[in-house]
Amino acid sequence: MDPCWSRRACLAQQDGSGLPGWQEKQGRSSLVTSDAASQLEDDDKIIGGYECSPHSQPWQVYFTYGSDYRWCGGSLINEWWIISAAHCYKRSVDWCISRLIQVAKAIQFPQYNQYNTDNDIMLVKLAQPAQFSAYVQPIPISRSCPVAGTECLVSGWGNILTSGVQYPDVLQCLNVPILSDSACRAAYPGRITKNMFCAGYIEGGKDSCQGDSGGPVVYNGELMGVVSWGIGCAQKNYPGVYTTVCNYVSWIEEVIANN
């Protein structure tokens, strides 16, 4: 496992509760509907978490690579749009949904920096609207920025081992506290921008991981962050780093209005 990784996304169901999932087969990425997609395959998973209650994260989506490899997560924000991480974008594939919905386009934030992972956010538009139900629901976007000490919920199908690789069949959840900006910058000197925040435990043991990338950080039922990057997974002194969604509300609204 790469010690410095990016966590990446598609739509999937959580025990029948999720959204379509992106699957890549023969050079194509397709979204699997919630009836067909119960898992996400990526190198990122929750470490030290617990199985999410069935249907508790109805906005959760994921990307897959092949039938078993889920490489990223995401969040449905309305019937047409998904938020994920910009580093989850793959230029060499066509985006589509395998069953009910075709993916129309994927739009990275214009100033996304692949070298330092700044502005790690992406919008994905569906060609057909998602059908809401008790199991498929959008999540509101938080206009409030992260506050140190606040406990948030991270979810995903990423790696669940600190050493080695094991991906769960059931969506994993993890409660993590938001760390102060000073603690975040001390953990990653010179690497944290105003568009990033840290959440987790300095002592290690609990974290998002490879395969969780692009997935949601939720506070009070609203999308506050996007799983972005970290050094290792659940390592002491290296908390998870997340994209600060509140900084992109205007851009999100503009993209949706113009597309």
From TrEMBL:
One of its GO terms (cellular component) is extracellular space. Keywords: Disulfide bond, Hydrolase, Protease, Serine protease. One of its GO terms (biological process) is proteolysis. This is Peptidase S1 domain-containing protein. InterPro entries: Peptidase_S1_PA (IPR009003), Peptidase_S1_PA_chymotrypsin (IPR043504), Peptidase_S1A (IPR001314), Serine_Proteases_S1 (IPR050127), Trypsin_dom (IPR001254), TRYPSIN_HIS (IPR018114), TRYPSIN_SER (IPR033116). It comes from the Eukaryota. Belongs to the peptidase S1 family. Snake venom subfamily. Pfam families: Trypsin (PF00089). The keyword Protease applies. One of its GO terms (molecular function) is serine-type endopeptidase activity. The keyword Protease applies. Residues 46-257 form the Peptidase S1 domain. Gene3D superfamilies: Trypsin-like serine proteases.
